[in-house]
Amino acid sequence: MLYVLMDAGTDIYAVASASVVEVVPCAALKTAPGAPRFIAGILNYRATPVPVVDSGMLLAGHPAAVRFSTRIILLRLEMGARERVLGLLGENVTRVQGFEESDFVEPGARGTDFPCAGRIAALGDRWVQRLDLASVLTEEVWEALTAEEA
Question: What is the distance between the alpha carbons of residues 116 and 135, in angstroms, rounded to a whole number?
Fold first, then answer.
């Protein structure tokens, strides 16, 4: 399976390309008052509000640096009974890599604060950690962020 790679802090993360709707340049985001700190804001994506997660804040504790290679990865996720689109702001979104399921192994240590950080695979002398972003936003947080849909 192909994965889109991105950086957060000094680490490399992967999202399954099968869930990627589109990769777009950084864009102006509406602030989301009261949202968790890892929410960068709300993207107007084809007249639909899309919450954008700042991977730097979520995974490394500081905002993603806005550079030429910083992009928003739009992901299609199953959230409860509905399919939704979530944006992921990531640094160095310039690579796609193929991995087999068997390439991913348990990391040996995993914090309970990051349920979205999954198994890891070797890439050269570095590790790539797979992300499961459906576990980032609860249904209640999602509804609060996208209340304008109603």
Answer: 6
pLDDT tens for the chain, 150 residues long, are 999 999 998 999 999 999 999 999 999 999 988 888 889 999 999 999 999 999 999 888 899 999 999 999 999 987 667 788 999 999 999 999 999 999 999 887 766 566 677 889 999 999 999 987 766 666 666 666 665 444
- Structurally, the chain folds into a number of domains equal to 1
Whole-angstrom distance, CA of residue 55 vs CA of residue 14: 11
Residues 6+ positions from 28 with CB-CB distance below 8 Å: none
State pTM to two decimals: 0.86
Residues 6+ apart with CB under 8 A from 136: 38, 53, 58, 86, 115, 116
DSSP 148: G
Q: Where are the beta strands (DSSP E) in the chain?
A: 2-8, 11-16, 20-25, 39-45, 48-54, 71-79, 82-98, 117-123, 126-131
Q: What is the CATH number of the domain that holds 131?
A: 2.40.50.180
Look up the domain containing 7 and give its range.
2-149
Cα–Cα distance between 71 and 88 in angstroms, integer? 8
* DSSP, res 108: S
